[in-house]
Write a structure and sequence with these properties.
The protein has 17 helices and 18 strands. The chain is α/β, with parallel strands linked by helices and 606 residues long.
Amino acid sequence: MVSDSNSDAARPRRGHVTAVGGSHATVQLARPATPGAIDDLTVGKMLEIQALNAWAIAVVTSVAEHRESGGTSAEVDLLGEIVQGENGPFFQRGITEYPSVGSPAAMLSREHLRLIYDIAGPRTINIGTLSQDSSVGAYINVDEMLHKHFAVLGTTGVGKSTGVALLLREVLRARPKQRIFLIDPHNEYAACFGDKAEVLSPTNLRLPYWLFNFEEMVDVIFRARPGIEEEVEILSQVIAEAKNLFAEERDSNRPRLRKVESEGAGYTVDTPVPYRMSDLLALIDKRMGKLENRSAFPKYHRLITRIETVSNDPRYRFMFQNANVGGDTMVEVLSGLFNLTDSSKPVTVMQLAGFPGEVVDSVVSVLCRMAFEFGLWGGGLAPLLIVCEEAHRYAPADRSVGFGPTRKAVSRIAKEGRKYGVFIGLVTQRPAELDATIVSQCSTLFAMRMANDLDQAIVRSAVSDAAAGLLAFVPALGVREVFAFGEGVALPTRIRFGEVPKEFLPRAATVGQFASDSGPLDAAVIAAVVERWRGASMSRRRRAIDLVDEETTGFESPILKRPREVAAEDRPMPVSDRAPASPPRMALAEAPRPAGTDGIARWPGR
């Protein structure tokens, strides 16, 4: 018999076992000592059931009264056991010695509760308290949680974002050097990590177009619509040619990788090396000039127009700035994105609100793919955690929707990333809309309130413990309450997330700025909103004029609303810094473009 500080006398008996199954048992409950008293043994409470040489640990899943006998019984799931070891009693998952019919059952004692859950140490983080006993902390094995992926699931308004902020802040407390890349679609995590975070947005992100692989580039050029086959075929050829052409011109001493017209050698269309947009357009123009059949002109013309339109769109400045200057900035981009050289800011918050809607999926695809590829080719020398909010957007269960390369990039991290030090944390309010294969790769799950049966079914299929029955409690969880399952926790249990300091709470940039009873707005306020709205798609030249006005008049333009030194990056480059224009590869910013009747700038000669 296992012995500890609790005597049988101090352990009030609550009933006895009447039936035992493979992972569950039935306990006949004793009547309350005081007639009319309310029994505190309810659904979700934990029991310890005496076996010959162990205490079986069980959770109550249902309680029923038997009218015929007047008694009450509880159905319980068997989760693990406390056994005697050389150094004293310890807890282990699974049941090696089952209780027998008639075995006494009691409420789980505080000593046994602490033995199971109070596992504080250098490998654990404290994320709150147990619902069973608020005096006992809820500890998570941080290495198991990170290195085998995790997911936070729950409907809107249950404290999911706050829980994510708490988890990541505790991870940083235990692992100060852990690199975290947080994909933030609602711009709500910027303040959660203080000066430990680098916040990226369309205003300060530099993600050169040449880092996009071919599928991602097609998605950008065709604005998230299916590419036209003839134009896509042309594009696949000229991108590879432009990359090799730029490589040859950059270093005249380097042996030529290939001739522009040749095929089968040199850089491929997916190799992440620089090329100039002016070279790309010139190559298309050159192919069009060689055509003998003028009926083929329109497809080349349309492709040129598409490329010019997207590369000149100010909303895509984060991709196409200095598109005709060139320069291999891949090392700088990787260092900036994942904080590889700055240990003082281990967190990168990638704010997606503000990006053109049609390019968001491509941007997420590039970021996740680059994270995995760096881990792959770097041999895991810089472990990185990718936290993906609204994960169902990027890896949907329905393969007929969404962007295939984004799903592939997220899935690849989930399936193979741990081998190369790239881990993932998924956050979603609709697990049923998230690829079930990806969810199944997460060994630690935090399930908050979910009422949808399909969502619960997806989570149930991903939980391997006998405690999958605990998901029946999920619809009744309160705000900040969560059921934690899997490798990161000692035992599946109900937890209440701890508090996050008010100044570090997640909040969207617009939340709280206007009250619901604010009354009528002043016309000047509406005008300022309209000006900011239009400013998001202003040309570089117009923005430069605003900067000059600000410097000469002292007036701060309501459009910019960002530090002057950042806005200065949008000023036109001095002519001396630009790439020389040499036909037929003219810089887009310098080449004359007569406007067509539709107002779209045309390539010279159209």
